Amino acid sequence: MTVPADALRLRAATAADHRFLADMLLVALNWNRDRAAFHLADIDLEPMFARYIEGWPRLGDQGAVAESSGEPVGAVWVRLFGSAEPGFGFVFADVPELSIGVRDGLRGRGVGSALMERIHRDAGAAGARRISLSVEPGNRAMALYEKLGYRVAVTRFDMVTMVKDLR
């Protein structure tokens, strides 16, 4: 089942969305219910997590928030990382890395697809040629990423880096 198109509104993510992006980062981190949950404090304390949202928005950051009935229900954003402080899905300094989260109960209903399509358009229009992301094996979201044209670039330890060509 999808969320009716007229019930879903996509808008650009702003500085006021910082806390919601943190919430969506937690959703992404906590996809595996068989593992101890991460908490907001973990994002603040762990530089590898914090780098995805600290200082939002930095120059070059882009993002979108999905709203339903005026409430935020999902977010997607891309950020560039340097080789000195790479993200989990880092491939090159000129390839923005994508993060996405959709609230429980709304996954599998088209919210994530709509957000991904929006960020692909926005990032491409801003000059990005590719987008990367990281996903853990077993995460159902990997099927969505493959459907949207992401291809496995690197598999290491318990992480898969995928890349989409926007050209």
Account of the 3D structure:
By secondary structure, the chain is of the alpha+beta class. The chain has one domain (5-165): Aminopeptidase, CATH 3.40.630. It is 26% helix and 28% strand. The protein has helices at residues 18-29, 40-45, 47-50, 111-125, 141-147, and strands at residues 8-12, 62-68, 71-79, 97-102, 130-135, 151-156, 159-165. The strands form two sheets. It has a four-stranded antiparallel sheet with strand order 1-2-3-4, sandwiched between helices. A three-stranded antiparallel sheet has the order 5-7-6. The chain starts with 7 loop residues before the first strand and ends with a strand. The mean pLDDT is 92.
List the helices and strands and how they pair.
Elements (H helix, E strand, L loop, with lengths): L7 E5 L5 H12 L10 H6 L1 H4 L11 E7 L2 E9 L17 E6 L8 H15 L4 E6 L5 H7 L3 E6 L2 E7 L2
Antiparallel strand pairs: 1-2, 2-3, 3-4, 5-7, 6-7
- Label the overall shape: globular
CATH superfamily, called what?
A: Gcn5-related N-acetyltransferase (GNAT)
Q: Secondary-structure element order, as H and E?
A: EHHHEEEHEHEE
Task: Please report the distance between the alpha carbons of the first and last residues.
Answer: 30 Å
CATH fold field value = Aminopeptidase
Q: Which CATH class?
A: Alpha Beta
| Backbone structural class | alpha+beta
- The count of helical stretches stands at 5
CATH architectural arrangement: 3-Layer(aba) Sandwich
Strand count, sense and barrel status of the largest sheet are: 4 strands, antiparallel
Helix content: 25-40%
The radius of gyration is 15 Å
Mean pLDDT over the full residue set: 92
Strand proportion, as a percent range, falls in: 25-35%
Please mark out the parts with pLDDT under 50 across 5 or more consecutive residues, or reply none. none
Strand line-up of the largest beta sheet: 1-2-3-4
Annotation, overall tally of beta strands: 7
